[in-house]
Description:
With about 170 residues, the protein is mostly beta strands.
Amino acid sequence: MKKLIFGLMIVMGLCSCTSQEPDRYTGQSLEFELFKSSEFDYNGTLLVRELTSGDLEFVIQLEGAKSSSSISFPSHLHFGGYDEAEALIAQLLTPVSGSDLKSVTVLNLLSDGSKLTFDKMKNFDGHVKIHLANDGPDYSVILVAGNVGANFNAESAFDPSKITVCSKNF
């Protein structure tokens, strides 16, 4: 009888393992570095993953001092390079949490009405900026920035003195 109960427990355990959620991701991803852009000691990465729906998920992960308060840092995807004066905001991204220095955003339509697919992301002419604050004088402080897509450049080519402060206009 003990063997029968033990056998049923094993079968039930195996059955519960086979009902997995379908994978959310296609396995395609791109990673871009985000570089220190002010006196604040932060840098990070942008991971772009394709969802099975065809949408893109942006995961920003910063490295630097974490905060125990509810501070968050506004983040934007822009058209054009970080050094372009009138680089319009393509998408407002989820603010980076000060407690874990992470942001996850599933992209909607961009501000110009277009949809960014994984293949289009490879050739996208854009950049990401993360600000110290949402408004006021600290809005002009860019914690990290980096070109993404086709115009990505390595740290050796990154020049924080050329970063332009973003316009809040779409």
